[in-house]
Amino acid sequence: MQEPLLGAEGLDYDTFPEKPPPSPGERARVGALQNKRVFLATFAAVLGNFSFGYALVYTSPVIPALEHSSDPDLHLTKTQASWFGSVFTLGAAAGGLSAMVLNDLLGRKLSIMFSAIPSAAGYALMAGAHGLWMLLLGRTLTGFAGGLTAACIPVYVSEIAPAGVRGALGATPQLMAVFGSLSLYALGLLLPWRWLAVAGEGPVLVMVLLLSFMPNSPRFLLSRGRDEEALQALTWLRPADADVHWEFEQIQDNVRRQSSRVSWAEARDPHMYRPVLIALLMRFLQQLTGITPILVYLQSIFDSTAVLLPPKDDAAIVGAVRLLSVLIAAFTMDLAGRKVLLFVSATIMFAANLTLGLYVQFGPRPLTPNSTVSLETLSLAGTEQPPATPTSYLTLVPLLATMFFIMGYAMGWGPITWLLMSEILPLRARGVASGLCVLVSWLTAFVLTKSFLLVVKAFSLQVPFFFFAAICLVSLVFTGCCVPETKGRSLEQIESFFSSRRRSFLH
């Protein structure tokens, strides 16, 4: 078992010798009621993630509907459907790029609020679309908003949360994104595609309204020389009996030591580039597990495989499992630790992807061809699978394997990569580096989402799943060798760890 992150003694670890920090157990005993204002501020912020999750999977029920549309201006061809599914990730990459500037220019809170403008405009365009260009532009704008919030919200939440509940609160962005996706799947069973876009406007407006009453991050305010406002924000966020002045002095000391911007020479220092590189690689590997193309084409994947239940019902069931799994992660992250959940997560995803690949390779084929998003029967090209019967329980395998994949992802590599990004990035580079992480993440997602259908057409559906399974094995090795355990540590302690020049996180 890994030793505590800052377990070694010495000057490098004695960041605040005047008063030892409270233990993780003492911090945990603060209780939910005493942190109710932090929870309220977190809820207001993560409504942006709800919209992000909702917009991400918007194509799942919409693409099949538009493929059968009688309106020639809205009827999607195979190529158009792939662009409609993937252009969101290009917008998200642009949002991450803009976050590299806005996160430090406007601050975390105002950047989240700013995302409401492209989000509302994007939903309006898709709701009133009378041509493909409106659909693509709306999809791109909602992606831009999602990329911006994906970079800003984890940083905001980690900077306002006490160490004892930061793991649970750090899972809430992913939790709300999952809840947003589940809401889209559920509403997709009831509403036509235009009204799905209209419904997406609601959470955006509520987010702006609530955030206007919330404080900005005390760390950001201190970095801008607004000390009095920072103290007021921290006092509002903490319970009445908390030692606010001692925590404020810790944050103030850390901010003062990092008041200048990072130079290119400093960027080559291991204590600066190592956490940034870890965060970047985690975001890269997270996308390579296949989560985005699987979510975007979820209903289409079920359409192209033999399943016992209707594909719409399968998608909604998977969304519910994803929500439950993120809840499990939120409650266990501060107990089991980040690394244990990452190991469990990657193992489950590996088994699920391998199962999906083997099922497509050797399992039963659909009784009738499908026309959804060009997956069709291409996944079965060149194989001799036996035909499926409507009551064959073997056809539950794709649903169960996908449920386990989503469960594994949502328990670890989903929420923890976002949380660790906000925890380990150095304060001086946090705004820029978080935007860079989102940029890399969504550029990777775009390449995967755009190429997914092409790979399926050229090689069949099992090939992407075998590739995703191999990436899960790489993720296991990466977690064991490079990822630090940050459970119960303050952001200042984590930064001190990377400044200690230790060669390994495992000793």
Quick rundown:
This protein is an all-alpha fold and about 500 residues long.
Q: Would you kindly provide a written description of the structure presented here, covering whatever features stand out?
A:
By secondary structure, the protein is mainly alpha-helical. It has a single domain (35-214, 258-498), classed as Growth Hormone, Chain: A, CATH 1.20.1250. The chain contains 25 helices and no strands. The protein is globular. The protein starts with 23 loop residues before the first helix and ends in a 9-residue tail after the last helix.
List keywords for this structure.
single chain, 507 residues, globular, 69% helix, mainly alpha
Number of strands: 0
- What is the annotated CATH architecture? Up-down Bundle
Shape: globular
**Top CATH class:** Mainly Alpha
CATH topology descriptor: Growth Hormone, Chain: A
Number of helices: 25
* Helix share, percent: 55-70%
Element string (H = helix, E = strand): HHHHHHHHHHHHHHHHHHHHHHHHH
Rg calculated over all Cα atoms: 23 Å
Proportion of β residues? Answer: under 5%
The residue ranges in which pLDDT falls below 50 over 5 or more consecutive positions are 1-19, 23-33, 367-374, 376-391, 503-507
What is the number of independent domains? 1
Question: Which helices and strands appear, and what pairs or packs with what?
Answer:
Elements: H1 24-28, H2 36-56, H3 59-67, H4 78-105, H5 108-114, H6 116-127, H7 132-160, H8 166-170, H9 172-188, H10 193-199, H11 201-211, H12 218-223, H13 227-237, H14 244-257, H15 264-267, H16 270-288, H17 291-296, H18 298-303, H19 311-336, H20 338-362, H21 397-411, H22 415-424, H23 430-459, H24 462-482, H25 491-498
Helix pairs in contact: 2-7, 2-9, 2-11, 3-4, 4-7, 4-23, 5-7, 6-7, 6-10, 6-11, 7-22, 7-23, 9-19, 13-14, 16-22, 16-23, 16-24, 19-20, 19-21, 20-21, 20-24
